[in-house]
């Protein structure tokens, strides 16, 4: 026998009041309800294990209780840490967190945002960097404007080419700091493994490496630029490519830790010792970076803390408490064993 769904009328019958009164208690209405009646309603809700229809409530209040988060790779520890931090605040409140994994695909990104628009999301977080694509910029601009007209709170991590609140993640500064550290330890023959070509985060990190080299009167050599994709496997492939030029390189700056870890693994597999024969550096400080062999010298970007700050900020905005802002991300150098001083 299928058990029928408990409705607001069942609660009203048990509490000996009208469905309207039950609705007022559930929604914390300003309409006065006596303390005795409110207690009866709450007792009836508990006894019947009644759950209000949040979709119907959302339609009535023009709120969906949906927070959309757009990421590029849900398996990447970078995004996992950020979302974990966000949920530190959001999970205790009645919001549904919808995570869209887009694999840096323009159509998937646009589909995700259009779905959130259609479902009238209360907030959307662009947790990944913007895609460097003209169609993406043009079509995303239109959807973003429509979301803004619906009252959706919009937040971007790193700069995005449309008018939303963006958080600076210090990508360029982080790449500059890690390259500075390599140079300070005597390295001048420095290779760089890039991130995805269509990602603005990749561009910023490459610019940080170039700026550091220029500040030390060194030239960025195009032949020492190797393509990567922010993944462990991409780091392995880059290692195989740079083996042909290993006599021209003393240190490699990888665009992120996942790439650096793949690079170290493959170099060790090929019999190239890190850091005795070549030094490797990363950016992000993923949890696994300190457990690599050797442990990875990197720049810490406190992604988990950023996630908690985003969660706190969103809740404040959704509750119209506008005095809370997001704390800036401060990169920090973490010196481990993957870099050799050659001065």
UniProtKB/TrEMBL annotation:
It comes from Halanaerobium salsuginis. The keyword Transcription regulation applies. CDD domains: HTH_LacI, PBP1_LacI_sugar_binding-like. Residues 6-61 form the HTH lacI-type domain. GO terms for molecular function: DNA-binding transcription factor activity; transcription cis-regulatory region binding. Pfam families: LacI, Peripla_BP_3. Keywords: DNA-binding, Transcription, Transcription regulation. This is Transcriptional regulator, LacI family. The keyword Transcription regulation applies.
């Amino acid at each position: 026998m299928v058990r029928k769904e408990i409705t607001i009328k069942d609660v009203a019958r048990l509490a000996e009041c009208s469905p309207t009164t039950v609705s007022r208690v559930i929604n914390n209405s300003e309409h006065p309800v006596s303390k005795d009646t409110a207690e009866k309603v709450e007792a009836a809700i508990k006894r019947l294990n009644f759950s209000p229809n949040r979709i119907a409530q959302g339609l009535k209040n023009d709120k969906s209780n949906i927070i959309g988060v757009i990421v590029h790779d849900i398996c990447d520890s970078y995004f996992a840490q950020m979302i974990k931090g966000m949920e530190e605040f959001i999970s205790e409140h009645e919001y549904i967190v919808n995570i869209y994994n887009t694999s840096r695909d323009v159509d998937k990104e646009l589909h995700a945002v259009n779905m959130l628009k259609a479902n009238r999301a209360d907030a959307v977080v662009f947790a990944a960097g913007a895609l460097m694509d003209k169609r993406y910029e043009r079509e995303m601009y239109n959807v973003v404007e429509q979301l803004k007209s619906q009252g959706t709170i919009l937040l971007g991590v790193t700069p995005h080419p449309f008018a939303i609140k963006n958080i600076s993640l210090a990508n360029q500064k982080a790449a500059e700091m890690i390259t500075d550290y390599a140079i300070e330890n005597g390295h001048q023959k420095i290779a760089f493994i890039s991130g995805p070509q269509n990602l603005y985060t990749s561009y910023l990190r490459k610019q940080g490496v170039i700026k550091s080299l220029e500040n030390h009167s060194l030239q960025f050599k195009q032949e020492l630029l190797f393509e990567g994709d922010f993944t462990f496997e991409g780091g392995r492939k880059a290692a195989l490519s740079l083996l042909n030029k290993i006599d021209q390189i003393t240190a490699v700056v990888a665009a992120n830790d996942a790439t650096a870890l793949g690079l170290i693994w493959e170099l060790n597999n090929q019999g190239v010792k890190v850091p005795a024969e070549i030094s490797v550096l990363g950016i992000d400080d993923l949890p696994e970076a300190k457990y690599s062999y050797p442990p990875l010298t990197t720049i810490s970007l406190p992604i988990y803390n950023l996630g908690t700050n985003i969660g706190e900020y969103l809740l404040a905005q959704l509750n119209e408490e506008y005095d809370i802002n997001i704390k800036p991300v401060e990169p920090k150098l973490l010196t481990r064993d993957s870099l050799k001083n050659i001065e």
